[in-house]
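hiii, so i know i said id send this last week but things got crazy w the move. better late than never?? heres the sequnce for the chain we talked about at the cafe, plus the structure i predicted for it. fair warning i was half asleep when i ran it
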Amino acid sequence: MRKLFIIRHAKSSWDHPELSDRLRPLKKRGVKDAELMGHLLRKASVYPDAVLSSPAVRALATAEIICRHTKFAFHKVQVIDDLYFKGMEAIMQAVHKLNPALQTVFVFGHNPDLTELVNCFSDTPINNLPTCGIVGIDFNIIRWEEADFSNGRIVYYEYPAKHR
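okay and structure toks below
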């Protein structure tokens, strides 16, 4: 059994319009939401064996907060350029290349790519993965390259607005 947790970055700040999209930080609410989601993962005893992230500041900041809660060393996060708006297929390729020894993997990125990925990998479509939303998908597979919609099942779906 393999478990993939697809995590959209938390709410980002637009306070500095001079910053490029890639450099936008989290806003205060985003930090608070990431703390909440990290707490929920820890409470559910979800701990990653590997973490992949987009290089965008808001994705990495979300990953850093959630890693702290799930006891994953942030310096081990694999930053992958193809997770920054390169399409759902690029994320799928990164997942398919994962070492089969890894059981639980977190992927931090952006919409619309993540919503498309959830809908490609799971048996239950969603309309939109909200900011800092997390979808956990179980795959009854041996190698990550086998992951697809025919063997993915959503087992976890949380987002901050459910807890306000």
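btw The radius of gyration is 15 Å. thought thatd interest u
miss u guys!!
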